[in-house]
């Protein structure tokens, strides 16, 4: 609040702010970008409390802004056939809007954002709209690998709009976060939780398929036969052991 007060009192703002009301400011900026013609990065825009007859999937209360610059379009055409990654970021603004970012990986192994979708929604419907707008801009992208978090909505929407992908992978960061969140299922002190977590990290990074299968069977057996780790063992077996090809490094 102090920073907001200082910004207001000293008239500190940023160059893209067109109006003190954020909704009006965004609409004015979108209009400016659309006036760029072929260089416009705006693929789609729907303000809140406005009907959109072209996309009946969105409700009046919904907000959606999809952006892809000319450079980003070139990047997804060039690198998209190899890998596509998508992730969402929330909690970064006062309106509870989420930022969904589509990325490729360039020839140097560096992630390159190729499209953005700002919306109050984070479901399959908005992702289908996101990907369909990209398809209208650059055509069908057929990657060899699709990486996302553990929620199925991203991949389901992609497969509907762009088609199935040979290899679907889960983001390691999200897998790791889910494991850490569920360590509470383990009874006992932090030492046992730490041991289980470190064991899973070693398992995750094994690069031999045969070695991985042997180790995973042993890990599950050890977890299930220990009363303190039994509940976590069931969680791991049901949620990860049956689809190790989407998260284990060896695949």
From TrEMBL:
Which residues belong to any copy of the MULE transposase domain? 84-176
Which domain of life does this protein belong to?
Answer: Eukaryota
Its protein name is MULE transposase domain-containing protein
